[in-house]
Amino acid sequence: MPEVGALGRPHGADRGSGRVLVLGATGFVGRHVGAALEQAGYEVLAVARHPRKTPASWRFHPMDLADAEPRALVELIDEAGPVGVVNAAGEVWSPTADRMHRSNQLLVERLLTALTAAGPRPRLVQLGSVHEYSPQPRGVWLTENSPEEPATDYGRTKLHGTRTVLRAAESGTADAVVLRLSNVIGAGTPRGSLLGQVAAQLLEGAAEGRTAEVRVSPLRSSRDFVDAQDVSRAVVAALRSPGAAGRVVNIASGVSQPVRDMVDLLMSISGRPARLVERPVAQSRGLTDTDWMAVDVSAARALLDWRPRRTPRDMVQDLWQAAARRQETSPPTGERAAPAAVGDTSAGQEVQVGRADAVGQHVLAQPLQAR
């Protein structure tokens, strides 16, 4: 097995809070989670296919989690002796249902098999999705007791993973908690998401010295957006909360924000000349239940002593600043193809977890009032 920590700085004994394995640590959410864990005093062992840019203070273990056998995971857990494991790996925008099945279902099954066989008994924090629930009527908040009939392959595969974790917790073979995340936004938001695409189009327009034409499908939905830093605080709290064992806990802002307002806010924060173009769809339809989402976070307050702190402006500002820095430090790639129009993902599939390698602006600037 590759040496644990071979790409990181040797530490000897664990830090005061212990070591945590972060699966999918090089992905969008995984990077934020690792940073929060380190700030909370944990030693981070990052597990992913490729190291990318992980902090020197993190240990790194290369592993293709989607194809890893349980024995490899058992060896890693036995050698690392972690107090916690965070599963931030999975697929969101996979082109095939098979890849989602492998990354969101089989990976979780293999992980639980490994945790059962390993000597240490760490707390597992499984990052799930609010898209595991059935879409609810406008004005009805999602709770942990909402019906579970997902509308997408993504939601169905994530639900399978959640139920596998809960069965293991109920049987006593794993100490685990599932955090169901809403639409996560922040520094490093993937380009495949709606706001990631909007940021890319703004930057491309500026680079070419023209007014950016931000092309999107009609922006009609409202979604519950949560800041990546708030999500990371929830993960730390879940590792430390005995009362959360065996539970599902929703992590969200508790507010439904019109997607159009988030796009307008991003364009305003960028300060770049831009024009929003909503391309017509072939067949118009009325608004449906899938066009609105808000999530109740009262269970997170009760079980984790957690509540969202950051505003839409905070998360969008972080997204834009990170995207602009990334463009400044990236080498020229030659002529780029014009971006395809992107929609507001009516099924609600915005930004969740990394791959297995891993009204107006004045209103949006106000603190969120979480339900």
Structure report:
The protein has 371 residues and is an alpha/beta fold. It has helices at 28-39, 70-80, 97-117, 153-171, 194-207, 228-240, 259-270, 298-304, 312-329, 361-364, and strands at 19-23, 43-48, 59-62, 84-87, 123-129, 175-181, 183-185, 212-216, 222-223, 225-227, 248-251, 257-258, 274-278. It has a seven-stranded parallel sheet with strand order 3-2-1-4-5-6-11, with helices on both faces. Strand 4 (84-87), helix 3 (97-117) and strand 5 form a beta-alpha-beta unit. It starts with 18 loop residues before the first strand and ends in a 7-residue tail after the last helix. The relative contact order is 0.17.
SSE arrangement, N to C: EHEEHEHEHEEHEEEHEEHEHHH
What's the alpha carbon Rg, rounded to whole Å? 20 Å
State the secondary-structure class: alpha/beta
Query: If you average the pLDDT, what whole number results?
Result: 85
- The fraction of residues assigned to DSSP E strands is 15-25%
Profile the largest sheet: 7 strands, parallel
Strands, count: 13
Percent helix range: 25-40%
Short description:
With 371 residues, the chain is of the alpha/beta class.
List keywords for this structure.
alpha/beta, 10 helices, two-stranded parallel sheet, seven-stranded parallel beta sheet, globular
